[in-house]
Design goal:
CATH architecture of the largest domain: 3-Layer(aba) Sandwich
Helix content: 25-40%
CATH class of the largest domain: Alpha Beta
Protein name: Homoserine O-succinyltransferase
Distance between the termini: 35 Å
EC number: 2.3.1.46
Number of domains: 2
CATH superfamily of the largest domain: Alpha/Beta hydrolase fold, catalytic domain
Radius of gyration: 21 Å
Number of strands: 12
Family: Belongs to the AB hydrolase superfamily. MetX family.
Subcellular location: Cytoplasm
Main location: cytoplasm
Number of helices: 11
Shape: globular
Length: 379
């Protein structure tokens, strides 16, 4: 537990909440009459309001991307390795905004929020969200903060999809897009993994059609299984082999189906247990569906280059060699489309054994490249 924060930390941060009373029309045909967004900021907005960077989170992410909420916090924010003084997103140069998306379960309006029409949690009645919906809500947040144009919108995985959508929905409001470990749309295999995770939740007896909060329970088993499936896909075979191998928890096998015998089994159960205690099941369903639905090229008969033709931002695309969930091939699809659309794009493929989770880790070559690009755009 830190008694003094590291010199490259943003230190103590306090989340802020903004309430929006203007209805937000959604892609599903419904609307939110009013809602709130929770966010954090790091660094200072300059006089020209030209140094703002938006951080878009991945599936299970949230607004707490850097620093500490309390001196007693055991861990900093989820992307603390990349945000702070002297780090790739240097808070001595940039004003950084990180939010929890609509539909989340960490302070923004979502399925666990009270539905004003019923006085009960929304649960399954919360509308389905898309990446485009999130970007529209983020644009409203930028309006309130007085940010007419982002110096950069940055995200990994699902966050990278949001960064790309910004260049399409609001091309004049973003100068640079950094899409890391991302894809222009999910493959059939990725959609299949998401469906298995959703079915684990939907078939949990404690799910109660999405209204489990009213019953005073949570679909813990379903959430645990969903997280275990997901976590397997976030790591590479090499990473899992190096971390666990076939190591046993005890000296001998028990020869039954219920014991936790291998270290990797123990790890997955721990991850599932921890996740089920902090994440909302309906939010998990919502976030995975947003991933599945993202396909901006569909508006132009699958022509991604034509879709990206309206973009005016410069792009930085980064992938990792052992990421099989969002493989380098998918990043190169983005790069090829941008090149065909005659956009400025730089691409870096990082040799890293950690798999998809590599974008969250302080890999030296990755941080160096990330820093180099951000230093080019500092104003």
């Amino acid at each position: 537990m830190p008694t003094a924060f590291p010199p490259d930390s943003v230190g103590l941060v306090t989340p802020q909440v903004l309430h929006f009373a203007e209805p937000l029309a959604l892609a599903c045909g419904r609307s939110l009459a009013d809602y709130q967004l929770i966010y954090e900021t790091y660094g200072e907005l300059n006089a020209a309001r030209s140094n703002a960077v938006l951080i878009c989170h991945a599936l299970s992410g949230h607004h707490h991307a850097a620093g500490y909420h309390s001196p007693d916090d055991r861990k900093p924010g989820w992307w603390d390795s990349c945000i702070g003084p002297g780090k790739p997103i240097d808070t001595n140069k940039f004003f950084v905004v990180s939010l929890n998306n609509l539909g989340g379960c960490n302070g923004s309006t979502g399925p666990s929020s009270l539905n004003p029409a019923t006085g009960k949690p929304f649960g399954a009645d919360f509308p389905v969200m898309t990446v485009e919906d999130w970007v529209h809500s983020q644009a409203r947040l930028a309006d309130v903060l007085g940010i007419a144009q982002w110096a950069a919108v940055v995200g990994g995985s699902l966050g990278g999809m949001q960064a790309m959508q910004w260049t399409i929905s609001y091309p004049e409001r973003i100068r640079h897009c950094l899409a890391i470990a991302s894809a222009p749309k999910l493959s059939a295999q990725n959609i299949a993994f998401n469906e298995v995770a959703r079915q684990a939740i939907l078939t949990d007896p404690e799910f109660h059609g999405g209204h489990f909060q009213e019953q005073g329970v949570i679909p813990k088993r379903g959430l645990m299984l969903a997280r275990m499936v997901g976590h397997i896909t976030y790591l590479s075979d090499d990473a899992m082999g190096e971390k666990f191998g076939r190591g046993l928890k005890s000296e001998k096998l028990n020869y039954d189906f219920h014991s936790v015998e291998f270290q990797v089994e123990s790890y997955l159960r721990y991850q599932g247990e921890e996740f089920s205690g902090r994440f909302d099941a309906n939010t998990y369903l919502l976030m995975t569906k947003a991933l599945d639905y993202f396909d901006p090229a569909a508006a132009n008969d699958g022509d991604l280059a034509k879709t990206l033709a309206k973009a005016s931002a410069d792009f930085c695309v980064i992938s990792f060699t052992t990421d099989w969930r969002f493989s380098p091939l998918r990043s190169r699809e983005i790069v090829d489309a941008l090149s065909a659309a005659r956009k400025n794009v730089c691409y870096l493929e990082i040799d890293a054994p950690q798999g998809h989770d590599a974008f969250l880790m302080p890999i030296p070559r990755y941080l160096q490249a990330f820093s180099s690009y951000m230093n080019r755009i500092a104003v």
